[in-house]
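Hey, I was hoping to borrow your eyes for a little while. I've been puzzling over a protein and I'd love to understand its fold better. The fold is given in discrete form, as structure tokens running alongside the sequence. I'd be grateful if you could look everything over and explain what you see. No rush at all, and the record is pasted right below.
>
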Amino acid sequence: AGITSLLGSGVYTAAYPLHDVSSIHLLYEEWANYSVFYKYQPIGLVRKYFGEKIGLYFAWLGLYTQMLIPASVVGVIVFLYGCATVDDNIPSLIVVVVSKSQFQL
């Protein structure tokens, strides 16, 4: 009940594969595999297989992700500094003590 039987019965006169299996396998090995998350994206292969618009989208997404790395490092440092110095902040301790003494839960 596959394409071979349809070709044999004359329903179709010819059939051509839409995708090159070697390109799919290469994209899987170089791009869609969890073990290669630290490598650069093969933008040329993505563009060749999916087209210009999709290739440009993934190129932009890769650049955007790389540009977020410094901001995330700064954010983690600021967060850790805030966690380490939260008990030393006298104005915030006064606000907490005053607000607890004024309101009953």
Helices lie at 3-9, 21-30, 43-50, 52-84, 90-102. The mean pLDDT is 84.
